[in-house]
Amino acid sequence: MKPKERLAIPRQKPKELVPADRVTNFYEVVSNFDQETAFKEADRCLQCKKPKCMIAGCPIHNNIPKFIGLLRENKIEEAYWAIRETSSLPAVCSRVCPHEFQCEGSCVRGKKGDPVSIGMLERYIADWMVENKKNIMAPCALPNGKKIALVGSGPAGMTTAFYLAHQGYACTIFESLPILGGMLTVGIPAYRLPRNIVNAEFDALKNCGVKIVTDVVIGKDKTLEDLKSEGFEAVFIGVGAHDSRKLGIDGEDLEGVTHGVDYLREVNMGKPVHLGKNVVVVGGGNVAIDVARTALRTGSENVFILYRRTKAEMPASQAEIDHLEEEGVTIEMLAAPVKIHGEGGKLSQIECIRMELGEPDDSGRRSPVPMEGSNFMIDADSIIPAISQNVNLTSKEGVDLNLSRWNTFIVDDDTMQTNIDWVFAGGDAVLGPQTAAKAVYQAKVAAESIHRFVEGLDLREGRFDQES
Ligand code: SF4
Q1: Is residue 138 a part of any domain in this protein?
Q2: 376-379 and 346-360: which strand pairing?
Q3: Residue 250 is part of which domain span?
Q4: For residue 139, is it within any domain?
Q5: Does ligand 1 have an atom closer than 6 angstroms to the CB of 120?
Q6: Could you read off the pLDDT of 40-72 as tens digits, one per residue?
Q7: What is the position in ligand 1's atom list of the atom closest to the CA of 52?
């Protein structure tokens, strides 16, 4: 095919459930490409010699032109293993990564039109393997008799366990909750990431001998030092950012105020949560959007998002914003809550103020400035602040681990080693709330460093290329 012909192919769109068919359930909204659509989309790739999608866009540097090229040749199994050379979680990352800000945001085709739909192609390949009952498990290694503990079963813990188990280490993942997956399962709703996708990854880990212990809180039920005494030669902290950041306004402790990730965790763990008819969500990121769409699916009728900037500045991905609006959520822009009013200990109204955009702040976005005297009230049954999350630090109880001013674990960026030589950390624990792909990358670095640490080798010699 000539380059001109490739350039003429429009970006292919996946099929989606229509809004009326999706707001009453948690079925996956976006369908996979069919074969014809996947091949057509693969034909749009220009096979760049210096692929920015891979070098600058993808945090784990998946060889994107290679797997797309193999897909084009109908070598789908080989395409899958090309992704697995760098990624432990293709089916997960292809669904939950914000591709428009990563690989697709760097695709050269995006300069004059639509980028290649890299995420959907990765998903097509990963799902094809499962649908065609192909083995998605890399061969397991012979046990080397050395034990490693992992704190948290999210994407960082899963990835570190994956790489270490495949080198023969006896890995044990300690999860504080009764269910596995961390933010992948208690944060992200099932309509974006079906649970069978995550479960398949845990089956693969168990198949390679990874032990999983639930309902154990490291730092409370046992400490990191206890793990060392039990014979674990190193520990990896891969805890997520599960603690909601507060708004810091009057009335936040009233009944009817539930914070974003707390609400999602309850729903995702199958607990009945009724927010009432009128719900106001505060925030503009993916958590706020997940909360609003989940509220609709659990029976709320009027769901608003209150965001202090405009839609153009929302950090959530465009596809998520589109889905949100299609489902009937209203975005109330340039507004922020200033006080939560209540009666008898229960929330009744939210007092808000109008904002206007001023000069750009550190993030490069124009900062919201309150407009004096513009206060207004909204009646609500529930308010869900979803403005950001902090890292859960329980695991550091009893040990003197250094923390940053954002209360994240400080590590050596090249090795992911903390100030205690047998303790490593990565993912949200180090970065704060971030993407699954960034957690996977740091977890891979940590796995290599842990191996080198246990073997008594120089950690830096084996380090991954950190260029991105
Ligand atoms: Fe293909 Fe875009 Fe990557 Fe180039 S930048 S190799 S066109 S996906």
Answers
A1: no
A2: antiparallel
A3: 245-389
A4: no
A5: no
A6: 999 999 999 999 999 999 999 999 999 999 999
A7: 5
